Amino acid sequence: MNTDIDKIKQSIRDIYDFPVKGIVFKDLTTAFKNAKILNLISTNLTNLYKDKGITKVVGIESRGFIMGSILANNLGAGFVLVRKPGKLPADTIKESYKKEYGIDTVEIHADALDETDIVLIHDDLLATGGTVAAVLNMVKRFHPKKIYINFIAELEFLKGRDIFPEGTEIESLIKF
Ligand code: AMP
Known about the structure:
Elements: H1 4-11, E1 13-16, E2 24-27, H2 29-32, H3 35-49, E3 56-60, H4 64-75, E4 78-82, E5 92-98, E6 103-109, E7 118-126, H5 130-140, E8 146-154, E9 169-175
Parallel strand pairs: 3-4, 3-7, 7-8, 8-9
Antiparallel strand pairs: 1-2, 5-6
Bound molecules: adenosine monophosphate.
Adenosine monophosphate binds at residues 23-26, 63, 123-131, 155, 160.
């Protein structure tokens, strides 16, 4: 009865009132530090995309870098970094988005992607979806052939999927 998905789910730790009071933070470090769980996440995510012809995985700073780069390697794809402003060294394009308090910005190198790419955007967790929706808009400016979006876990009660345009292909392994 204990499937891969149950095992992964049980390995994620709840941290109450982090980073602010009232938030239950899903801490994936307890999943990543366990070799068997790390492998289960990697295998299950790779299986979802192995036939899609992914050429680039776009990982979001910083927790999206961990499984994002593993996935890129498993899929025979390259890895592209989305970072907070001022961190990438070469020419970048940026996208700003509204957060609960104030505005945030994400950046990607201007030569990171092109029209021949099939892109998989990866982050560890879908909460409100604000960050990844901004990354999606930014990636679309490169006019890749196709864009997929992937998370390890999703907080379904926040309805983050609702902010994406209809037809956006979103997958997550674990639902809370
Ligand atoms: P979002 O609200 O979807 O834009 O979330 C932004 C980022 O914050 C995501 O990359 C998540 O990794 C992280 N995040 C937001 N809420 C949580 C939470 N409750 N537990 C763990 N990570 C979270």
